[in-house]
Amino acid sequence: MPEIQQVLPKYMQIANYVRDQILRGDLRPGDEVPSERQIAADWSVARPTAARALEALRQQGFVESRQGAGTFVRDRMRPNRLARERYSRARDTGKIYPENERAEIVAAGSATVPDHVADALGLTPGSEGVRRQRVIYADDQPVEISTAWYAPAIGDLAPKLLARERLRSGTLSYVEQATGRQARYARDEVSARLATPEERERLGLAEPSAVLLVRHVVYDGEDRPLEFTEAAYPPDRWAFEATYPLA
Question: How far is CA 88 from CA 4, 97, 132, in A?
Fold first, then answer.
């Protein structure tokens, strides 16, 4: 039988917390991260534990130390804002995007659902669904193009999905409020492929260019699909990061 894994060591929990702040955009490139002394006080741990947490962040490439100044988020950090970081940020701050990011809704309305989307949402192939597409900019540079799909029944209850207007509370939050269905978990599938002509145009890519593709499905408490989103990222935004115990 598999063994239940132990909780991550304290230093790694601290490192993961700071890492998540960086990934969410709460800490931006050039920002100073908490010092050993501050971490030790905030987390009630010994200084060596705090030092080990900062060293883990340095080893992972998230921060760098500057002699006599402190520890800072690396200037070269350009992390993707994946769905889980946006959900976390919206829950804690009420805002989906950090100050240097913005989203533009470029399409909204009814459209024929692609077969793979129909399969994910439990719809009949070739049926109509609600399609909502956006381009996300970081420091005024396009860094993501994503298309969200919803079943027609959700569109009936959430008509704002059909309008090309930003939903300030967040699209998923609006859908939850409009339908009374609460998102409980999500599943991501990550792959890569050549960019489509539209993706090249929206993201300013040369031909040919590869994009990172993330297919994201949100489910409610009854395991029913609530939202399907397909997001494409340009080559210089690719990143995989995970920390987990091996023993």
Answer: 26, 11, 22
Residue 125: phi and psi, rounded to 5, are -55, 135
Could you tell me if 110 and 231 lie in one domain? Answer: yes
Angle at 62 between CA 56 and CA 66, to 5 degrees: 90
DSSP state of 114: P
Per residue in 186-231, pLDDT tens?
Answer: 898 999 999 999 999 999 999 999 999 999 999 999 999 999 999 9
Q: What is the pLDDT of residues 134-182, one digit of tens each?
A: 999 988 889 899 999 999 999 999 999 999 988 877 899 899 999 999 9
Task: Give residue 69's domain range.
Answer: 10-73
For residue 1, what are its two tokens? 């039988």
In this model, does residue 5 exceed pLDDT 60?
Answer: no
Six token digits for residue 188: 């991501």
Same domain, 59 and 128: no
What strand order describes the sheet that includes 225-233? Answer: 101-112, 128-138, 141-150, 225-233, 210-220, 183-194
Buried b (16+ CB within 10 A) or exposed e, 36-69: beebbeebebeeebbebbbebbeeeebbeeeeee
Are 67 and 102 in a shared domain?
Answer: no
Q: Is the pLDDT of residue 3 over 50?
A: no
Which residue's structure tokens are 């569109």?
A: 155
pLDDT tens digits, one per residue of 72-125: 998 765 656 666 666 666 666 666 777 778 889 999 999 999 999 999 999 999
